[in-house]
Protein backbone atom coordinates (compact mmCIF):
# COMPACT_ATOMS: atom_id res chain seq x y z
CA UNK A 1 0.00 0.00 0.00
CA UNK A 2 3.00 2.28 0.32
CA UNK A 3 2.54 3.51 -3.26
CA UNK A 4 -0.75 5.24 -2.32
CA UNK A 5 -0.32 9.00 -2.01
CA UNK A 6 -2.87 9.73 0.69
CA UNK A 7 -2.74 13.47 0.09
CA UNK A 8 -4.26 12.75 -3.31
CA UNK A 9 -7.10 10.46 -2.31
CA UNK A 10 -9.97 11.35 -4.61
CA UNK A 11 -12.95 13.01 -2.91
CA UNK A 12 -10.77 14.17 -0.04
CA UNK A 13 -12.37 17.64 -0.28
CA UNK A 14 -15.69 16.70 -1.87
CA UNK A 15 -18.99 17.79 -0.24
CA UNK A 16 -21.88 15.41 -0.82
CA UNK A 17 -25.51 16.58 -0.82
CA UNK A 18 -27.45 13.56 0.41
CA UNK A 19 -31.06 12.91 1.32
CA UNK A 20 -33.95 10.45 1.14
CA UNK A 21 -34.26 8.37 -2.04
CA UNK A 22 -37.97 7.81 -2.62
CA UNK A 23 -40.37 6.37 -5.19
CA UNK A 24 -42.85 9.22 -4.55
CA UNK A 25 -42.95 12.91 -3.71
CA UNK A 26 -43.10 13.17 0.07
CA UNK A 27 -42.53 15.67 2.86
CA UNK A 28 -38.99 15.53 4.27
CA UNK A 29 -37.27 16.82 7.41
CA UNK A 30 -34.51 19.33 8.12
CA UNK A 31 -31.12 19.62 6.40
CA UNK A 32 -27.93 19.47 8.49
CA UNK A 33 -24.18 19.33 8.00
CA UNK A 34 -22.49 15.95 8.25
CA UNK A 35 -19.36 16.19 10.43
CA UNK A 36 -16.05 14.32 10.22
CA UNK A 37 -15.38 12.66 13.60
CA UNK A 38 -11.60 12.98 13.18
CA UNK A 39 -11.51 16.61 12.13
CA UNK A 40 -13.97 19.20 13.43
CA UNK A 41 -13.22 21.64 10.58
CA UNK A 42 -14.18 19.17 7.82
CA UNK A 43 -17.72 19.02 6.44
CA UNK A 44 -18.47 15.77 4.66
CA UNK A 45 -21.52 17.45 3.17
CA UNK A 46 -25.17 17.92 3.97
CA UNK A 47 -27.98 15.50 4.70
CA UNK A 48 -31.68 16.13 4.34
CA UNK A 49 -33.42 13.87 6.83
CA UNK A 50 -36.54 11.80 6.33
CA UNK A 51 -39.34 12.33 8.85
CA UNK A 52 -42.05 9.94 10.11
CA UNK A 53 -44.31 11.42 7.34
CA UNK A 54 -41.68 10.43 4.76
CA UNK A 55 -41.89 6.86 6.09
CA UNK A 56 -45.69 6.78 5.63
CA UNK A 57 -45.44 7.94 2.01
CA UNK A 58 -42.55 5.60 1.18
CA UNK A 59 -44.30 2.58 2.73
CA UNK A 60 -47.42 3.25 0.62
CA UNK A 61 -45.28 3.33 -2.55
CA UNK A 62 -43.18 0.26 -1.69
CA UNK A 63 -43.69 -2.67 -4.09
CA UNK A 64 -41.94 -6.06 -3.88
CA UNK A 65 -39.46 -6.40 -6.67
CA UNK A 66 -41.19 -7.73 -9.81
CA UNK A 67 -38.28 -9.56 -11.43
CA UNK A 68 -37.27 -13.17 -11.91
CA UNK A 69 -34.71 -14.66 -9.49
CA UNK A 70 -32.04 -14.59 -12.19
CA UNK A 71 -32.79 -10.95 -13.01
CA UNK A 72 -32.50 -10.05 -9.31
CA UNK A 73 -29.22 -11.93 -9.08
CA UNK A 74 -27.85 -10.15 -12.15
CA UNK A 75 -28.73 -6.73 -10.72
CA UNK A 76 -27.07 -7.51 -7.37
CA UNK A 77 -23.94 -8.76 -9.17
CA UNK A 78 -23.92 -5.52 -11.17
CA UNK A 79 -24.19 -3.58 -7.92
CA UNK A 80 -21.14 -5.47 -6.60
CA UNK A 81 -19.23 -4.40 -9.71
CA UNK A 82 -20.39 -0.80 -9.25
CA UNK A 83 -19.22 -0.78 -5.62
CA UNK A 84 -15.80 -1.90 -6.86
CA UNK A 85 -15.79 0.65 -9.67
CA UNK A 86 -16.54 3.43 -7.15
CA UNK A 87 -13.98 2.19 -4.66
CA UNK A 88 -12.21 5.56 -4.34
CA UNK A 89 -15.33 7.51 -3.51
CA UNK A 90 -16.67 4.92 -1.04
CA UNK A 91 -13.24 4.73 0.54
CA UNK A 92 -13.17 8.52 1.05
CA UNK A 93 -16.63 8.57 2.64
CA UNK A 94 -15.66 5.69 4.96
CA UNK A 95 -12.64 7.75 6.08
CA UNK A 96 -14.37 11.06 6.46
CA UNK A 97 -17.84 10.16 7.69
CA UNK A 98 -17.10 7.00 9.72
CA UNK A 99 -13.45 7.56 10.72
CA UNK A 100 -12.34 4.25 9.20
CA UNK A 101 -8.63 3.57 8.78
CA UNK A 102 -7.23 2.37 5.49
CA UNK A 103 -7.23 -1.28 6.61
CA UNK A 104 -10.76 -1.08 8.02
CA UNK A 105 -12.10 0.69 4.94
CA UNK A 106 -10.61 -1.80 2.49
CA UNK A 107 -11.93 -4.75 4.53
CA UNK A 108 -15.38 -3.22 4.75
CA UNK A 109 -15.76 -2.57 1.03
CA UNK A 110 -14.61 -6.15 0.37
CA UNK A 111 -17.21 -7.50 2.81
CA UNK A 112 -20.03 -5.45 1.26
CA UNK A 113 -19.13 -6.73 -2.21
CA UNK A 114 -19.00 -10.31 -0.86
CA UNK A 115 -22.48 -9.91 0.63
CA UNK A 116 -23.89 -8.72 -2.71
CA UNK A 117 -22.38 -11.67 -4.59
CA UNK A 118 -23.28 -14.22 -1.90
CA UNK A 119 -26.93 -13.20 -1.60
CA UNK A 120 -27.23 -12.83 -5.38
CA UNK A 121 -26.46 -16.54 -5.58
CA UNK A 122 -29.32 -17.25 -3.16
CA UNK A 123 -32.08 -15.60 -5.20
CA UNK A 124 -34.77 -18.18 -5.92
CA UNK A 125 -38.46 -18.48 -6.71
CA UNK A 126 -39.72 -18.67 -3.10
CA UNK A 127 -42.32 -15.98 -2.30
CA UNK A 128 -41.12 -12.78 -0.51
CA UNK A 129 -42.70 -11.50 2.67
CA UNK A 130 -43.43 -8.12 1.12
CA UNK A 131 -41.91 -4.97 2.59
CA UNK A 132 -38.83 -5.26 4.83
CA UNK A 133 -37.51 -2.51 7.10
CA UNK A 134 -33.70 -2.63 7.25
CA UNK A 135 -32.24 -0.63 10.15
CA UNK A 136 -28.46 -0.47 10.27
CA UNK A 137 -25.69 0.92 12.52
CA UNK A 138 -22.80 3.33 11.90
CA UNK A 139 -19.93 0.98 12.80
CA UNK A 140 -20.12 -1.00 9.54
CA UNK A 141 -22.04 1.62 7.59
CA UNK A 142 -21.45 -0.03 4.23
CA UNK A 143 -21.16 -3.77 4.93
CA UNK A 144 -24.10 -4.22 7.30
CA UNK A 145 -26.28 -1.72 5.41
CA UNK A 146 -25.58 -3.58 2.16
CA UNK A 147 -25.85 -7.08 3.64
CA UNK A 148 -29.33 -6.54 5.06
CA UNK A 149 -30.61 -4.93 1.87
CA UNK A 150 -29.03 -7.48 -0.45
CA UNK A 151 -30.62 -10.40 1.45
CA UNK A 152 -34.04 -8.74 1.42
CA UNK A 153 -33.80 -7.85 -2.27
CA UNK A 154 -32.37 -11.21 -3.37
CA UNK A 155 -35.48 -12.84 -1.92
CA UNK A 156 -37.73 -10.40 -3.81
CA UNK A 157 -38.85 -8.07 -1.02
CA UNK A 158 -39.22 -4.29 -1.15
CA UNK A 159 -36.87 -2.52 1.26
CA UNK A 160 -37.29 0.59 3.36
CA UNK A 161 -33.73 1.23 4.53
CA UNK A 162 -32.83 3.40 7.50
CA UNK A 163 -29.10 3.90 7.97
CA UNK A 164 -27.67 5.21 11.24
CA UNK A 165 -27.90 8.97 11.67
CA UNK A 166 -24.09 9.19 11.95
CA UNK A 167 -23.44 7.71 8.48
CA UNK A 168 -26.18 8.83 6.07
CA UNK A 169 -23.92 9.91 3.18
CA UNK A 170 -22.36 6.49 2.68
CA UNK A 171 -25.79 4.83 2.75
CA UNK A 172 -27.13 7.37 0.26
CA UNK A 173 -24.24 6.76 -2.17
CA UNK A 174 -24.57 2.97 -1.80
CA UNK A 175 -28.33 3.09 -2.40
CA UNK A 176 -27.73 5.21 -5.50
CA UNK A 177 -25.37 2.53 -6.82
CA UNK A 178 -27.99 -0.17 -6.13
CA UNK A 179 -30.51 1.89 -8.11
CA UNK A 180 -27.98 2.43 -10.88
CA UNK A 181 -27.46 -1.35 -11.03
CA UNK A 182 -31.19 -1.78 -11.71
CA UNK A 183 -33.01 -2.05 -8.37
CA UNK A 184 -36.30 -0.13 -8.91
CA UNK A 185 -36.91 2.80 -6.53
CA UNK A 186 -40.21 1.18 -5.51
CA UNK A 187 -38.16 -1.82 -4.29
CA UNK A 188 -35.51 0.21 -2.44
CA UNK A 189 -36.16 3.52 -0.71
CA UNK A 190 -33.71 5.27 1.60
CA UNK A 191 -34.95 6.99 4.74
CA UNK A 192 -32.07 8.69 6.53
CA UNK A 193 -33.02 9.61 10.06
CA UNK A 194 -32.69 8.92 13.74
CA UNK A 195 -34.71 6.80 16.19
CA UNK A 196 -38.01 8.51 15.33
CA UNK A 197 -37.75 7.36 11.73
CA UNK A 198 -36.80 3.88 12.95
CA UNK A 199 -39.79 3.83 15.27
CA UNK A 200 -42.09 4.93 12.42
CA UNK A 201 -40.77 2.03 10.35
CA UNK A 202 -41.28 -0.61 13.03
CA UNK A 203 -44.89 0.46 13.57
CA UNK A 204 -45.80 0.89 9.91
CA UNK A 205 -48.56 -1.58 8.88
CA UNK A 206 -47.04 -2.33 5.45
CA UNK A 207 -43.84 -3.65 7.06
CA UNK A 208 -43.78 -7.48 7.11
CA UNK A 209 -40.28 -8.02 8.51
CA UNK A 210 -37.47 -6.13 10.21
CA UNK A 211 -33.71 -6.63 9.91
CA UNK A 212 -31.84 -4.75 12.62
CA UNK A 213 -28.25 -4.38 13.75
CA UNK A 214 -27.47 -2.13 16.72
CA UNK A 215 -27.72 -2.11 20.48
CA UNK A 216 -29.50 -4.78 22.51
CA UNK A 217 -31.67 -2.02 24.07
CA UNK A 218 -32.92 -0.79 20.69
CA UNK A 219 -33.59 -4.38 19.59
CA UNK A 220 -35.79 -4.79 22.65
CA UNK A 221 -37.70 -1.58 21.82
CA UNK A 222 -38.20 -2.80 18.25
CA UNK A 223 -39.33 -6.20 19.49
CA UNK A 224 -42.06 -4.53 21.58
CA UNK A 225 -43.08 -2.22 18.73
CA UNK A 226 -43.50 -5.18 16.38
CA UNK A 227 -45.58 -7.04 18.97
CA UNK A 228 -47.83 -4.02 19.53
CA UNK A 229 -48.17 -2.70 15.99
CA UNK A 230 -47.43 -5.29 13.33
CA UNK A 231 -48.88 -8.61 12.18
CA UNK A 232 -48.28 -11.50 14.57
CA UNK A 233 -45.32 -13.55 13.34
CA UNK A 234 -43.53 -10.57 11.78
CA UNK A 235 -39.86 -11.63 11.95
CA UNK A 236 -37.19 -9.55 13.67
CA UNK A 237 -33.69 -10.51 12.55
CA UNK A 238 -31.47 -8.82 15.13
CA UNK A 239 -27.70 -8.59 15.50
CA UNK A 240 -26.83 -6.80 18.72
CA UNK A 241 -24.11 -6.25 21.28
CA UNK A 242 -21.64 -8.40 23.12
CA UNK A 243 -19.45 -8.61 26.22
CA UNK A 244 -16.75 -10.62 24.52
CA UNK A 245 -14.01 -12.40 26.43
CA UNK A 246 -10.67 -14.03 25.69
CA UNK A 247 -8.82 -16.51 27.88
CA UNK A 248 -5.02 -16.62 27.76
CA UNK A 249 -3.50 -19.51 29.68
CA UNK A 250 0.10 -19.96 30.74
CA UNK A 251 0.94 -22.13 27.73
CA UNK A 252 -0.11 -19.47 25.19
CA UNK A 253 2.52 -18.02 22.86
CA UNK A 254 2.87 -14.55 24.37
CA UNK A 255 3.75 -12.58 21.22
CA UNK A 256 0.88 -14.17 19.31
CA UNK A 257 -1.55 -13.54 22.17
CA UNK A 258 -0.52 -9.91 22.69
CA UNK A 259 -0.87 -9.15 19.03
CA UNK A 260 -4.29 -10.83 18.86
CA UNK A 261 -5.47 -8.91 21.93
CA UNK A 262 -4.36 -5.51 20.65
CA UNK A 263 -6.06 -6.11 17.31
CA UNK A 264 -9.23 -7.56 18.84
CA UNK A 265 -9.68 -4.79 21.41
CA UNK A 266 -8.45 -1.69 19.59
CA UNK A 267 -8.88 -2.15 15.83
CA UNK A 268 -11.71 0.11 14.59
CA UNK A 269 -11.14 1.95 17.91
CA UNK A 270 -13.00 -0.92 19.59
CA UNK A 271 -16.21 -0.05 17.75
CA UNK A 272 -17.08 -3.57 16.67
CA UNK A 273 -19.73 -5.70 18.28
CA UNK A 274 -17.18 -8.54 18.07
CA UNK A 275 -14.44 -6.58 19.88
CA UNK A 276 -12.66 -8.06 22.88
CA UNK A 277 -13.91 -6.40 26.08
CA UNK A 278 -12.67 -8.65 28.88
CA UNK A 279 -9.34 -10.48 28.89
CA UNK A 280 -8.59 -13.29 31.35
CA UNK A 281 -4.88 -13.96 31.88
CA UNK A 282 -3.65 -16.92 33.94
CA UNK A 283 -2.24 -15.57 37.17
CA UNK A 284 1.27 -17.03 37.03
CA UNK A 285 2.13 -15.29 33.72
CA UNK A 286 0.13 -12.11 34.36
CA UNK A 287 2.86 -9.65 35.52
CA UNK A 288 5.15 -10.30 32.57
CA UNK A 289 2.27 -10.65 30.12
CA UNK A 290 0.65 -7.34 31.09
CA UNK A 291 4.00 -5.64 30.72
CA UNK A 292 4.18 -6.93 27.15
CA UNK A 293 0.58 -5.89 26.53
CA UNK A 294 1.02 -2.31 27.75
CA UNK A 295 4.20 -2.11 25.67
CA UNK A 296 2.23 -3.13 22.57
CA UNK A 297 -0.47 -0.58 23.40
CA UNK A 298 2.15 2.15 23.70
CA UNK A 299 3.30 1.32 20.17
CA UNK A 300 -0.17 1.93 18.67
CA UNK A 301 -0.48 5.01 16.49
CA UNK A 302 -3.81 6.81 16.69
CA UNK A 303 -4.33 9.52 14.09
CA UNK A 304 -6.09 10.73 10.97
CA UNK A 305 -7.77 7.73 9.37
CA UNK A 306 -6.29 8.24 5.89
CA UNK A 307 -2.66 8.35 7.08
CA UNK A 308 -1.02 5.05 6.17
CA UNK A 309 0.65 4.84 9.58
CA UNK A 310 -2.59 5.15 11.55
CA UNK A 311 -3.66 2.11 13.57
CA UNK A 312 -6.83 3.57 14.97
CA UNK A 313 -9.04 6.53 14.23
CA UNK A 314 -11.61 8.44 16.29
CA UNK A 315 -14.79 7.20 17.91
CA UNK A 316 -17.92 8.12 16.00
CA UNK A 317 -19.18 11.30 17.66
CA UNK A 318 -19.01 13.66 20.63
CA UNK A 319 -21.60 11.71 22.60
CA UNK A 320 -19.66 8.45 22.24
CA UNK A 321 -16.43 10.27 23.06
CA UNK A 322 -17.72 11.90 26.22
CA UNK A 323 -19.37 8.73 27.52
CA UNK A 324 -16.24 6.60 27.05
CA UNK A 325 -13.93 9.32 28.39
CA UNK A 326 -16.03 9.60 31.57
CA UNK A 327 -15.94 5.82 32.03
CA UNK A 328 -12.15 5.70 31.72
CA UNK A 329 -11.80 8.71 34.03
CA UNK A 330 -13.86 6.95 36.71
CA UNK A 331 -11.54 3.94 36.46
CA UNK A 332 -8.52 6.22 36.76
CA UNK A 333 -9.94 7.78 39.94
CA UNK A 334 -10.54 4.30 41.42
CA UNK A 335 -6.97 3.29 40.67
CA UNK A 336 -8.10 0.61 38.19
CA UNK A 337 -6.61 2.18 35.04
CA UNK A 338 -3.46 0.22 34.16
CA UNK A 339 -2.56 2.04 30.96
CA UNK A 340 -3.90 4.60 28.48
CA UNK A 341 -2.11 6.00 25.46
CA UNK A 342 -2.02 9.60 24.22
CA UNK A 343 -4.19 10.73 21.31
CA UNK A 344 -4.61 13.89 19.17
CA UNK A 345 -6.59 16.54 21.05
CA UNK A 346 -8.65 17.66 18.01
CA UNK A 347 -11.41 15.28 16.89
CA UNK A 348 -13.22 12.58 18.85
CA UNK A 349 -10.17 10.50 19.80
CA UNK A 350 -10.01 8.20 22.82
CA UNK A 351 -6.69 6.74 23.89
CA UNK A 352 -6.80 2.93 24.08
CA UNK A 353 -7.20 2.05 27.74
CA UNK A 354 -6.56 -1.02 29.90
CA UNK A 355 -8.66 -1.35 33.07
CA UNK A 356 -8.32 -3.90 35.87
CA UNK A 357 -11.45 -5.82 36.91
CA UNK A 358 -12.19 -8.80 39.13
CA UNK A 359 -14.03 -10.57 36.32
CA UNK A 360 -16.46 -10.06 33.47
CA UNK A 361 -19.29 -9.69 36.02
CA UNK A 362 -17.81 -6.25 36.86
CA UNK A 363 -18.69 -4.98 33.35
CA UNK A 364 -22.13 -3.49 33.69
CA UNK A 365 -22.56 -2.76 29.99
CA UNK A 366 -20.78 -2.82 26.67
CA UNK A 367 -18.40 0.14 26.32
CA UNK A 368 -18.31 0.67 22.57
CA UNK A 369 -14.77 2.00 22.22
CA UNK A 370 -11.06 1.23 22.72
CA UNK A 371 -11.37 0.06 26.33
CA UNK A 372 -10.11 -3.36 27.40
CA UNK A 373 -10.72 -4.87 30.83
CA UNK A 374 -8.36 -7.44 32.29
CA UNK A 375 -8.78 -10.04 35.05
CA UNK A 376 -6.56 -12.87 36.21
CA UNK A 377 -7.48 -16.48 37.01
CA UNK A 378 -5.87 -19.57 38.54
CA UNK A 379 -5.70 -22.83 36.56
CA UNK A 380 -8.24 -24.39 38.93
CA UNK A 381 -10.73 -21.58 38.23
CA UNK A 382 -11.12 -22.14 34.49
CA UNK A 383 -14.65 -23.56 34.67
CA UNK A 384 -15.77 -20.77 36.99
CA UNK A 385 -14.43 -18.23 34.45
CA UNK A 386 -16.38 -19.93 31.67
CA UNK A 387 -19.53 -19.89 33.81
CA UNK A 388 -19.21 -16.17 34.43
CA UNK A 389 -18.66 -15.48 30.73
CA UNK A 390 -21.82 -17.45 29.93
CA UNK A 391 -23.71 -15.76 32.76
CA UNK A 392 -23.46 -12.33 31.06
CA UNK A 393 -26.29 -13.52 28.83
CA UNK A 394 -24.44 -12.28 25.73
CA UNK A 395 -22.85 -14.72 23.36
CA UNK A 396 -21.20 -13.14 20.36
CA UNK A 397 -17.45 -13.81 20.11
CA UNK A 398 -14.95 -15.63 22.31
CA UNK A 399 -11.20 -16.05 22.04
CA UNK A 400 -8.81 -18.63 23.48
CA UNK A 401 -5.01 -18.68 23.49
CA UNK A 402 -3.52 -22.01 24.57
CA UNK A 403 -1.26 -24.76 23.32
CA UNK A 404 -3.15 -27.54 25.09
CA UNK A 405 -5.40 -29.39 22.64
CA UNK A 406 -7.67 -30.84 25.34
CA UNK A 407 -8.25 -27.37 26.69
CA UNK A 408 -9.35 -26.09 23.29
CA UNK A 409 -11.90 -28.87 23.22
CA UNK A 410 -13.00 -28.37 26.84
CA UNK A 411 -13.38 -24.59 26.67
CA UNK A 412 -14.94 -24.25 23.25
CA UNK A 413 -17.53 -26.91 24.06
CA UNK A 414 -18.68 -24.97 27.12
CA UNK A 415 -18.55 -21.33 26.06
CA UNK A 416 -21.84 -20.13 24.60
CA UNK A 417 -20.84 -17.82 21.76
CA UNK A 418 -21.71 -17.49 18.09
CA UNK A 419 -18.12 -17.17 16.86
CA UNK A 420 -15.06 -18.79 18.47
CA UNK A 421 -11.48 -17.79 17.71
CA UNK A 422 -8.56 -19.98 18.84
CA UNK A 423 -4.94 -18.76 18.79
CA UNK A 424 -5.73 -15.80 16.55
CA UNK A 425 -7.41 -12.43 16.76
CA UNK A 426 -11.10 -12.24 17.51
CA UNK A 427 -11.96 -10.40 14.33
CA UNK A 428 -13.94 -11.08 11.27
CA UNK A 429 -16.07 -13.59 9.54
CA UNK A 430 -16.06 -14.97 6.05
CA UNK A 431 -19.18 -14.46 4.01
CA UNK A 432 -20.28 -17.93 2.95
CA UNK A 433 -17.94 -20.17 4.92
CA UNK A 434 -17.77 -18.57 8.39
CA UNK A 435 -20.95 -16.57 8.95
CA UNK A 436 -21.23 -14.12 11.83
CA UNK A 437 -23.80 -13.86 14.59
CA UNK A 438 -24.49 -14.34 18.26
CA UNK A 439 -26.67 -15.99 20.83
CA UNK A 440 -28.75 -14.78 23.78
CA UNK A 441 -28.68 -10.99 24.21
CA UNK A 442 -26.35 -10.79 21.20
CA UNK A 443 -28.94 -11.58 18.58
CA UNK A 444 -31.74 -13.71 17.23
CA UNK A 445 -29.82 -15.48 14.47
CA UNK A 446 -29.61 -16.76 11.80
CA UNK A 447 -26.04 -15.69 11.13
CA UNK A 448 -25.37 -13.04 8.48
CA UNK A 449 -23.55 -14.38 5.45
CA UNK A 450 -24.69 -17.92 6.22
CA UNK A 451 -26.94 -20.37 4.39
CA UNK A 452 -29.97 -19.86 6.67
CA UNK A 453 -29.98 -16.06 6.65
CA UNK A 454 -32.02 -15.49 3.48
CA UNK A 455 -34.63 -17.95 4.61
CA UNK A 456 -35.94 -15.51 7.20
CA UNK A 457 -36.67 -13.03 4.41
CA UNK A 458 -38.83 -15.55 2.56
CA UNK A 459 -42.50 -16.19 3.09
CA UNK A 460 -43.35 -19.68 4.37
CA UNK A 461 -46.67 -21.51 4.12
CA UNK A 462 -47.15 -21.53 7.92
CA UNK A 463 -46.82 -17.69 7.95
CA UNK A 464 -50.34 -17.35 6.52
CA UNK A 465 -51.22 -15.32 3.44
CA UNK A 466 -48.51 -13.28 1.68
CA UNK A 467 -48.56 -9.75 3.14
P1 LIG B 1 -25.78 2.42 18.54
O1 LIG B 1 -25.70 2.47 20.02
O2 LIG B 1 -24.79 1.53 17.88
O3 LIG B 1 -25.92 3.75 17.88
P2 LIG B 1 -28.58 1.98 18.20
O4 LIG B 1 -29.28 0.74 18.56
O5 LIG B 1 -28.88 3.22 18.93
O6 LIG B 1 -27.06 1.57 18.31
O7 LIG B 1 -28.72 2.29 16.65
C1 LIG B 1 -28.81 1.31 15.63
C2 LIG B 1 -29.86 1.76 14.64
O8 LIG B 1 -31.14 1.74 15.28
C3 LIG B 1 -29.67 3.17 14.12
O9 LIG B 1 -30.01 3.19 12.75
C4 LIG B 1 -30.63 3.96 14.96
O10 LIG B 1 -31.07 5.17 14.38
C5 LIG B 1 -31.79 2.98 15.06
N1 LIG B 1 -32.74 3.25 16.14
C6 LIG B 1 -32.52 3.92 17.30
N2 LIG B 1 -33.65 3.95 18.05
C7 LIG B 1 -34.61 3.29 17.36
C8 LIG B 1 -35.98 2.93 17.60
N3 LIG B 1 -36.61 3.31 18.71
N4 LIG B 1 -36.64 2.21 16.67
C9 LIG B 1 -36.02 1.80 15.56
N5 LIG B 1 -34.73 2.10 15.26
C10 LIG B 1 -34.02 2.83 16.15
From TrEMBL:
Function: Oxidizes proline to glutamate for use as a carbon and nitrogen source.
Residues in Aldehyde dehydrogenase domain copies: 44-455
Protein name from the UniProt record: Bifunctional protein PutA
Superkingdom classification of source: Bacteria
Shown stretch of the complete protein: 526 to 992 of 1144
Active site location: 239, 273
Family as reported in the entry's similarity comment: In the N-terminal section; belongs to the proline dehydrogenase family.
